Amino acid sequence: MFSQSCVSQSCVLIINLCVLTVSSKKSQYSVREIVETLHVDNGGIFGKWGQYDYCAEGTYAIGYDMKIESHRGSGDDTSLNGVRLVCADVDGHVNGEVIESTVGKWGSWADETMCSSRNGSPQFLTSFSLQVEPYMFFKDDTSANYIKFTCRDYVGGSSNELAKPPGNGMYGNWGSWSRSCPSYSAVCGISTRVEGHVGIGDDTSLNDVHLHCCTEGRVASEPFGK
Q1: Is 155:183 a contact under the CB 8 Å cutoff?
Q2: How close are the terminal C-alpha atoms of the chain, in Å?
Q3: CB 144 within 8 A of CB 102
Q4: pLDDT tens digits for 156-184?
Q5: CATH number for the domain formed by residue range(s) 31-219
Q6: Rounded to an integer, what distance in angstroms lies between the CA atom of residue 226 and that of residue 65?
C-alpha cells in the first residue's frame, strides 16, 4: 500500500509530466493572435450573442455577404438576418471558405461583395458600420438593416469603403464606424447577436455584430480563450 506522501508525490510527477508534454507540443506551433475587437455604438438590444467563427490560420476576410428579408408590407419585417465573411490568404487567393456566426431564419443571401486589389496588392476588411432601426416600442422593429465595411492592405495604409449596392437598407440610420484593425492585421472572426423567433410577437433577427482582427506569427505559450 502506498503512503499518502507517496501518492501525493506520484500525482505531482504525473501532473508535471502532463504539463511538460502539453507545453512542448504547444511550442511547436505558431498561432493566430487576436489584436483588436471591433464593435459599433448603435447595435440592437435583442437576442443572444453567437459563438465566434474564424477564417483558417493565415487567411482573412476579403469580402462579405448579407442574408436579407425583403419588405413584407403588412407582415413582420426583420431585414438583416445574417452576415457571412469570405476568407482569403494574404496573397488574395480565395479558397471557397466562408464563416458565419448565428444566422436568422428569414430572407435569402444577397451575393458576395469583395474588396478589390490596389496597386496589385489585395485588400481585406478592416472596419465596419451598421444601419440600425432604433427600438420602435409598439411598432414593427427590424433592428439591423444593412452592413458595410472598409477595405485596406494587410500592412496598413489608406482604406476605401465597401458597400453592396444600393448601399443601404429600408429602415434606420447608419451609426459611427468601428475602430480599424491595426497595421499588419485584418478581420478574421465574427460573432453576431441574433434574436430567435419569438412566436406571437415582433421578430427582429440580427441586432449587432462584433469582429476580431488577427495577425500571424506568434508562438503560443498559452492557448487563446474567448
Answers
A1: yes
A2: 44
A3: no
A4: 999 999 999 999 888 889 999 999 999 99
A5: 2.100.10.20
A6: 25
Give dist(CA 153, CA 150) in Å, integer: 10
Q: Hey, what amino acid is at 220? A: A
Residues 87/101, Cβ–Cβ less than 8 Å: no
Residue range 65-116, pLDDT digits in tens: 999 988 766 666 778 999 999 999 999 999 999 999 999 988 999 999 999 9
Domain ranges within the chain, ordered by starting residue: 31-219
Q: Are 80 and 215 in contact (CB under 8 A)?
A: no
The rounded distance, in Å, linking the Cα atoms of 8 and 18 is 15
Q: Which of 167, 205, 210 is nearest to 79 (CA)?
A: 205
Q: CA–CA separation, 155 vs 184, rounded Å? A: 4
Grouping H, G, I as helix, E, B as strand and the rest as coil, residue 219 is: strand
Residue 90's nearest CA partner among 115, 53, 107 is 115
